[in-house]
Amino acid sequence: MQKDIIIVGGGHNGLVTAFYLAKGGFKPLVLERRSVVGGAAITAEFHPGFRCSTLAHATAPLQPAILRDMGLARHGLKMTQPDVRVFSPTPDGRALILYGDAERSSAEISKFSAKDARKYPDFQKSLANIADVIGDLLTLTPPDIDHPSAGDLWSLLKTGKKARGLGRRELYQLLRWGPMAAADLVAEWFDTELLRATIAARGIFGTNLGPWSAGSAMTLMLRAACDGEACGATWFAEGGMGAVTQAMAAACREAGAEFRTGAAVAQIRIKDGAATGIVLDDGEEIPARTVISNADPKATMLGLVDAQHLEPGFLGKIRNYRTHGTLSKLNLALSGLPKFTAAPDEAALRGRIHIGPEIDYLERAFDASKYGQFSEKPYLEAVIPTLTDSTLAPAGKHVMSVYVQFTPYQLRGTDWDNQRDNLADTVVKTLAEYAPNLPGMILGGQVITPKDLEQTYGMTGGHPFHGELSLDQFFTMRPLLDWARYRTPIKGLYLCGSGTHPGIGLSGASGANAAREISKDLRK
Amino acid sequence: MASSTNYDVIVIGGGHNGLVNAAYLARAGKKVLVLERRHIVGGAAVTEEIFSGFKFSVCSYVVSLLRPEIIRDLDLPRHGLEILPLDGTFTPMPNGDYLWRVNDHAKTRREIARHSRLDAEAYDDFGQAMLQMCRFVKPILSMVPPDPYTLNPRELMKLLFLGRRFRDLPSGDQYNQVQLMTMSAIDFLDQWFETDVLKATMSASGIIGTFLGVRSPGTAYVLLHHYMGEIDGAFRSWGFARGGTGAISNAIADAAREAGAEIRTKAGVARIIVKDGKAQGVVLENGDEIGTAIVSSSVDPRNTFVKMIEPENLPDEFMEDINRYKFRGSSGKVNLALDGLPDFSCLPGPGAHLRGAISISPSVDYMERAYDEAKYGRYSRGPYIDMVIPSLTDPSLAPPGKHVMSCFVQYAPYKLTEGTWDEKKEEFGDNVINTIAAYAPNIKSLIVGKQVITPLDLEREWGLSEGNIFQGELSLEQLFFLRPAPGWAHYRTPIENLYMCGSATHPGGGIMGASGRLAALEILKDYKAGKA
């Protein structure tokens, strides 16, 4: 059975690519190794009667174009966002609460510092302006540096014009902020440590960077580019993040894409430098003219392609592509709603709960990971989705989903199988400092370590973004310089996952950009 | 300009950049006066006899970055500059082994092969790649940074020039260049090498003078910056000036004087006189006023704009940028007068390994932990130390049989969380000596004199704000067209006739002299255009 197009992996980017290709009249077949599509955006029962977003638990808004084109609302997706964006408590019982509305956030900040409260709306505005420029870059195919096409130049010129439109001051700010440390960036604006830490955390989430690492300001700006908010958007999908990918899958089917789950690709067949199909792990071969991989660049080029088809220089570079994951996840089934000492009411807990009250706290959490350990006081980002979504747990009971950083993929002197329980204890102990009654409410849970991210979800090095988001792995360098345009040295083999530009969060932009480039080639 | 002015240009500060600036201006026929606060010229490039018979390169202690065009234009060898070779880096290890790299390539290869055969092979490729990168960056060091906002055709040509140069690089070099500009020294080196001590000791040049760790993104660039040593045209060779680092400043001062410049020491400037938005002269600390058409300041931006100029003369936005310009000094110095030579347990006896740099950088973790301590406001208990014993190469620096040893120490954060630098100075010095003694146990018995220089000393005595040896951190957001402030990277300032010519301007850092020279060329350009 000759297939035109095979997509390896049914994560959200693979689905977006499948949709746009199907809509363009092609007939892609999506092969997913697991029993459900969705990659890192899935909902699963982790304790009898309790479901939650297994990995990604909240998101920036999906790209409006993707939402619209795929008709996700029509396919049953309901996205909601509470007014509270983030609740950030301190161990001594104070809390900073930030809202989507900058004025309302200012009012909260004024409890700490009148000066910071005055500056917050300006900060928000400045970020939004810069985000507007970077936002354009996200939907752009990175230009070919050696032979830029007229189209490349035109898009760059447009972005350049827009950047100039920022005015001298803000343009310089954009250039200056890019390589800075997030800690320096927030210190330029604010005096309140808690506010600094809460915002700087956006620059380190999911990365192998501490707030003092140069370049973390860039990650912060990228995130702001996705949502235009200083403190970050907190969109939930009703039914968990799996609802997003389920709706996407429905849209794909409607457009004519086919799916096979439980179909693990073992190898990409290559002849004379061109992809000719794939081999499944049970030996079945499916020929295809075009193979698109939603797996990360390393898993694809080193795991699925035989090294003999790649030149050593390329192989060396792809091996050096950095995928050192530091993120873990703890999902808890709770018998009730934990009482956070610093929370004035239940509504305060509806957004993200940020544990990391000081820049130094976050930095120390990072320090431990450099030496192959995880900190006794980790940086946490938790959500209690059951506060706004009753479908996830029995009445009166709750689910808490907690991201944990920094937990290095490579532990020293031990391994994750031995440290799994220890990690869970550390997280619960840390949470208990802010919500003392939490430990007594735990009915069950699930720990997902970086090793699990790799083994179960196929992310090399346990990196949630398919590779570190750092300046040298961004835009025209994602995943590699010369190979940032979704193509690979193998003819007919493409990448469409998070390891390609822009590759951040659940935006689906990588998938959409890839589909655009692939369509161009297919129509040639 | 009013006829009451006595000078065409007054240069504030007689460091190497101020002197280069003065020399170029004097050679162009300008009447130049250099004002130096201390009793000798040279700034941080000075030789001082701290203990009788022992001459120290007190602060800066090796040279390699001094621009060849400056050596040529100012004819420095004729003015007494002689560079002596500094061969190799010797890194003792706690396990009794060592790593000793020298300029002799074959020898170094064999030495590295002792640790890892793969690394020995990679070392060749690495050297080649770095050479290419240096060639790419070199012209940028001699270029006035463009203004990315402007639509002025000349500036756009500069941007285009950079873009073209980049485009014309072979693909592999483009890749390396991008990595060098953005990565951490360790991430960069990890791609080439596996031997921990090799990576540790090589990464050290990526952190010198910065408040960054070897794992901090951006340090790969500083590594390149230090790779660019250029004595006699060979990249990556470092040397000593005969007579100590001060001899470099003296040679430049001599060239400046010969061209007609006047140099005054013990003449600290208290204030720059600004009238109607124009610099018109300076007031000395003793109250004397001196008129001039142009003021060219080689001291750092905080000293220039915050201390020497009344705030109402400067735009708020500019001052915001100057106030957040990062200094964050992170290093100190211990200078030792020795009765004999240190004896390293891992390679006993005197030998050629003592003639190069001796680096206490035994592992990547050691380097990173040194940084971790500094982040939280403590000096490193296990510091990175770069030592040289110049008296082995230049016997004029110490009495016969005796030696001077210079120890550059990092990290020593300017801001301590506990105590003050004056309280911690002794303890800091002792910690350095104890660290060295772990590798060379006889060191303590050799010490006949000890000078400890903390970041606070660098600030008080040498006028380097927060003790930053480069007049401001060499981090990406403070380089090129952002140095020292966005929009003010062309050596001019918001005050007419006031220029900057120190290390805080592009390219900055090290005994390079490029800032002083480029500033002089810009001043002369304005003269020609009738603007100054």
Task: Give the topology, please.
The complex is a heterodimer of chains A (524) and B (532).
Chain A: E1 3-8, H1 12-23, E2 28-32, E3 43-47, E4 50-53, H2 64-70, E5 79-80, E6 84-89, E7 95-99, H3 102-109, H4 114-138, H5 150-165, H6 168-177, H7 182-189, H8 193-200, H9 216-227, E8 236-237, H10 242-255, E9 258-261, E10 265-271, E11 274-280, E12 285-293, H11 297-304, H12 312-320, E13 328-334, E14 352-355, H13 359-370, E15 379-383, E16 398-405, H14 416-432, E17 442-448, H15 450-455, E18 493-495, H16 509-523
Parallel strand pairs in A: 1-2, 1-12, 2-9, 6-14, 12-18
Antiparallel strand pairs in A: 3-4, 5-8, 6-7, 10-11, 11-12, 13-16, 13-17, 14-15, 15-16
Helix pairs in contact in A: 1-10, 1-16, 3-4, 4-9, 7-8, 7-9
Chain B: E1 7-12, H1 16-27, E2 32-35, E3 47-51, E4 54-57, H2 68-73, E5 83-86, E6 89-92, E7 98-101, H3 105-115, H4 117-141, H5 153-168, H6 171-182, H7 185-190, H8 196-203, H9 219-227, E8 230-231, E9 234-235, E10 238-241, H10 246-258, E11 262-264, E12 269-275, E13 278-284, E14 289-297, H11 301-307, H12 316-324, E15 331-338, E16 357-360, H13 364-375, E17 384-388, E18 403-410, H14 421-437, H15 443-446, E19 447-453, H16 455-462, E20 498-500, H17 514-528
Parallel strand pairs in B: 1-2, 1-14, 2-11, 6-16, 14-20
Antiparallel strand pairs in B: 3-4, 5-10, 6-7, 8-9, 12-13, 13-14, 15-18, 15-19, 16-17, 17-18
Helix pairs in contact in B: 1-10, 1-17, 3-4, 6-9, 8-13
Can you tell me about this structure?
The complex is a heterodimer of chains A (524) and B (532). Chain A is 36% helix and 18% strand. Chain A has 524 residues and is α/β, with parallel strands linked by helices. In chain A, strands 1, 2, 9, 10, 11, 12 and 18 form a 7-stranded mixed beta sheet that branches. In chain A, helix 3 packs antiparallel against helix 4 (114-138) and helix 7 (182-189) packs across helix 8. The mean pLDDT of chain A is 94. Chain B is 36% helix and 19% strand. Chain B has 17 helices and 20 strands. The longest helix of chain B is centred in the first third of the chain and has 25 residues, at 117-141. In chain B, helix 1 (16-27) packs parallel to helix 10, helix 1 (16-27) runs parallel beside helix 17 and helix 8 packs across helix 13. In chain B, a hairpin with a 5-residue loop joins strand 6 (89-92) and strand 7 (98-101). Chain B has 532 residues and is α/β, with parallel strands linked by helices. The interface between A and B is large, with 38 and 37 residues.
